[in-house]
């Protein structure tokens, strides 16, 4: 069995379609079907993309067919609670692939029409609207790229912010939209601004005018997988 066949086996395991898997892993549309039809080998760059975007897949199994399909993992979950939170015993939190959507603003405004790639079930977690994968290192070591954050969207950026808490923030700068996880603090520049602060001290705090903030959500929990052989 070639690697392409094992990829299809994994796709069946996660109960998705090849086209959606291609979006999840950054592959070109129709690539997998062409490779399967030709019985062709997958290049090193393709295999790396799959391994990087599918953290539960066993690289040894994907490359050689040896071992189990899935890695054995230890899951570390951190929950960030407020006094006003009411925990829910059971909830299925939709996990979205941000790269497969038109951005956080579109996701927040039209989440009912966007299909999640999976669901999280974390006991006794406050109500969450969804979950996303973290990119970048601005919150390292508290969060690292590839971690998952579960969030609750807010709408009133002036009155609903809990200062000093961690938020998923989407801002517009010079016509480009950036999405990041930051601590949100009061700004010295006035009530029309917020200060975005990183855990990583290599990233400097930045004051942002509220008119540039397009979406914001309070981070309720984070999930990290620590891989074990």
Q: N- to C-terminal separation?
A: 23 Å
Strand tally: 12
Structural class: alpha+beta
| Computed Rg | 19 Å
Element string (H = helix, E = strand) = HHHHHEEEHEEEEEEEEE
Query: What is the averaged pLDDT score?
Result: 85
Shape: elongated
| CATH second-level architecture of the largest domain | Ribbon
DSSP helix fraction: 10-25%
Supply the CATH class of the largest domain: Mainly Beta
Binned strand content: 25-35%
Which regions have little confidence, pLDDT < 50, spanning 5+ residues?
Answer: none
Number of contiguous helices: 6
Domain module tally: 2
Brief rundown of the structure:
This protein is 21% helix and 32% strand.
Q: Which key phrases capture this entry?
A:
Umud Fragment, subunit A, ten-stranded mixed β-sheet, 434 Repressor (Amino-terminal Domain), 32% strand, 12 strands, alpha+beta
Q: How would you summarize the topology of this molecule?
A:
Elements: H1 3-13, H2 18-25, H3 31-38, H4 44-53, H5 59-64, E1 72-79, E2 87-88, E3 93-96, H6 104-109, E4 118-120, E5 125-126, E6 130-133, E7 148-154, E8 166-173, E9 176-186, E10 193-197, E11 206-209, E12 213-228
Parallel strand pairs: 3-6
Antiparallel strand pairs: 1-12, 2-5, 3-4, 6-7, 7-12, 8-9, 8-12, 9-10, 10-11
